[in-house]
Write a structure and sequence with these properties.
heterodimer; A: alpha/beta; Rossmann fold; six-stranded mixed sheet; 7 helices; about 35% helix; B: alpha+beta; 2 domains; six-stranded mixed β-barrel; 13 helices; 10 strands
Chain lengths: ~220, ~400
């Protein structure tokens, strides 16, 4: 698997804060920074929310570092799923509506997207919560909905920014298990940003950032792979 | 894509319903704007058509030549209007097809049932044709009556009511002045009151010859009513009439006209111009209120975009394109302004109908006008919703996501 790289970032630089990253050719890697190390910037660039000032970034073999805002939106829709620390569910949408959103924007018709979303919601164990709103869910449940939403558009890259940051240890572990399960079942490249060493232990490859620069890059010794 | 569009609309409706107070207030702004706009358009139309109706009462192809005899504001000595003038006009004019002279005096008129002070006119049978004035009952006197100075009269409905109450006046006798008995042969249909308050039905007509023989005609005719062959010939007819009248009165070039000319059509044209200008002003003011309604939509959409910045960030992160985000907010503006405009059409229609009823105008709002106003209101709302939607679409996803 390591000879097939979904994510390739070569010397990307975002000015202020300055940072660079070597080739990221992992199946799943972990960017492990203390605060202020540039992880959000890296996430934004890897997630096509922002472009780098310099350097090349290609996703699925396609250079995406010089795209327009509109093209980046298209890439996000079709290639990338996001999981955020604070879930970022749309509060006046139900669980089902939140999960169908990427499919809605992709123009999938209602019946099909609801069928696909329901399957995913079952998969994350929330089949009984379809019509609930985010405020009626626990933190762990919200993150499961967020994960279901992140993968509903069948992306090739899943970016998780401190996915367990707002959860207790047990719930956090469950969320990590779910992410890894999806990663394996769907051949999904998973990049997790965290400063929690326990979370980092789940990953195959760890890249440490400090002050916007990569300071180490090594294979992890996760057994889950 | 059509399916998606209806979904976008559906979602916009849901957003509007979720915040009913704000939605209603925003729609109210536009509704008042559209309503005021429609009401003003209708007032304008109503006022204009009522001017036209007044003008039709006085005759459409008609010119009045009035005597200056006995008028204090005329400095020279004016010649009276005579049968010679009537003959000259009919003989020399190419455009004038009818000339009806009239002598009018205020007289006491009495029947066995009552008395009334009214205008008594001596005129010709064509009077009712030139004034387009049909008979309610009986008939107009004819040329034989004129020739024979017949003691007959045709009266208006006011006189019929005042002197005969509910009785049939035809065949009855009235006495004009002290000792001129006239047999009533017809009653004119009611023309009601003019805008000036003048009662058109307060009238007694007799043959001009009868008037001259029994009441005298010391200053000649008071006016000659001219009818041109075609409305388009009105101006020409007036010019022609002036020159024929000057010749008939043997006026030297340096002398002023010793008669006056007036045409209801010209007066109506002036009144119509004035009412058109007024209507334009009113519509302008209403357009301003519509504009204010549009600004209300913009305001509320800007607030909405600001409040939902993080939601916009989430949608953008998921992969919504700038166009899709823009479509969402534009759809909300469309829903707000379309519903508001429809309410405004209802409001405007109601106002227009009530006012039209109060002023006894006929229907003043066409379906097309109402549809137009609704479309106009909607486009105003959408135009003002564009800026907030554009702003939402241009938000940087990262900044929007971080927004609390």
């Amino acid at each position: 698997m390591s000879d097939f790289s979904i994510v390739e970032a070569d010397g990307i630089v975002k000015e202020f804060p300055n940072m660079s990253s070597p080739v990221l050719d992992g199946v799943s890697i972990d960017v492990k920074p203390p605060s202020g190390s540039g992880k959000s910037t890296l996430m934004n660039i890897l997630g096509c929310l922002d472009g780098p000032t310099r350097g090349a970034y290609s996703l699925g073999g396609r250079d995406v570092s010089t795209l327009t805002a509109r093209e980046r939106a298209w890439v996000r829709l079709h290639y990338i799923g996001f999981v955020f620390q604070s879930f970022h569910l749309i509060s006046d949408h139900t669980v089902l509506e939140n999960v169908t959103l990427p499919l809605y924007y992709a123009g999938v018709d209602r019946r099909e997207r609801e069928a696909r979303a329901m399957e995913l919601i079952e998969r994350v164990g929330l089949g009984h919560r379809l019509g609930h709103r985010p405020t009626q869910l626990s933190g762990g449940e919200k993150q499961r909905v967020a994960i279901a939403r992140a993968v509903s558009g069948e992306p090739r890259l899943l970016l998780a920014d401190e996915p367990t940051g707002a959860l207790d240890t047990r719930t956090g572990n469950e969320v990590m298990e779910l992410l890894l399960e999806l990663h394996e079942a769907r051949a999904l490249t998973l990049i997790i940003v965290t400063h929690d060493p326990e979370v980092a232990e789940y990953c195959h490859r760890k890249i440490c950032l400090r002050d916007g620069k990569v300071v180490s890059d090594g294979r992890g010794h996760a057994e889950n792979a | 894509m059509r399916r998606t569009r209806s979904e976008v609309a559906g979602r916009a409706v849901r957003t509007a319903v979720r915040n009913p107070g704000r939605t209603l207030l925003t729609m109210l702004g536009l509704a008042i704007g559209v309503g005021a706009f429609l009401a003003m358009v209708s007032f304008g139309t109503g006022a204009r058509s009522s001017v036209m109706e007044q003008f039709e009462i006085l005759g459409t192809r008609v010119v009045y030549v009035r005597t200056n005899v006995g008028r204090a504001d005329f400095p020279g000595s004016a010649r009276p209007l005579t049968d010679a003038d009537v003959e000259a006009l009919l003989r020399d004019s190419l455009t004038i097809e009818l000339v009806v002279p009239r002598v009018t005096e205020v007289q006491n008129v009495k029947s066995v049932f009552g008395r009334y002070r009214t205008r008594v006119s001596g005129t010709m049978p064509d009077f009712v044709h030139i004034r387009e004035w049909p008979m309610l009952i009986g008939g107009m006197f004819d040329d034989t009556d004129v020739r024979q100075r017949a003691k007959v009269a045709v009266i208006g409905t006011t006189i019929a009511r005042e002197l005969f109450g509910q009785r049939d006046p035809v065949g009855q006798t009235i006495t004009v002045g002290t000792n001129l008995p006239l047999r009533i042969i017809g009653v004119l249909v009611s023309k009601g009151e003019q805008t000036s308050g003048e009662d058109m039905d307060d009238i007694v007509l007799m043959p001009a010859t009868t008037h001259q023989a029994f009441l005298g005609m010391p200053v000649g005719y008071h006016d000659l009513i001219l009818q041109v062959r075609d409305l388009g010939l009105l101006e020409t007819g007036m010019v022609e009439a002036v020159s024929i009248m000057r010749r008939s009165h043997r006026l030297a070039d340096i002398e002023e006209d010793d008669f006056r000319m007036a045409s209801p059509a010209q007066a109506a044209e002036l009144a119509r111009l004035v009412s058109t200008i007024l209507a334009g002003l009113l519509v302008g003011i209403a357009a301003v209120s519509l504009l204010v309604g549009g600004i209300g939509v913009m305001n509320i959409q800007l607030v909405s975009v600001a409040e939902r910045t993080q939601e916009i960030g989430i949608r953008a992160a998921i992969g919504a394109s700038p166009n899709q985000i823009m479509a969402q907010f534009l759809a909300e503006a469309v829903v707000l302004s379309f519903t508001g405009s429809l309410a405004g059409v209802g409001l405007g229609w109601l106002t227009a109908t009530l006012v039209a009823r109060a002023m006894s105008w006929s229907g003043t709002l066409s379906l097309l006008t109402m549809l137009g106003a609704a479309a106009f209101g909607t486009s105003v709302g959408v135009a003002f919703g564009y800026l907030p939607a554009k702003r939402a679409a241009q938000l940087e996803p990262i900044d929007a996501l971080r927004h609390e």
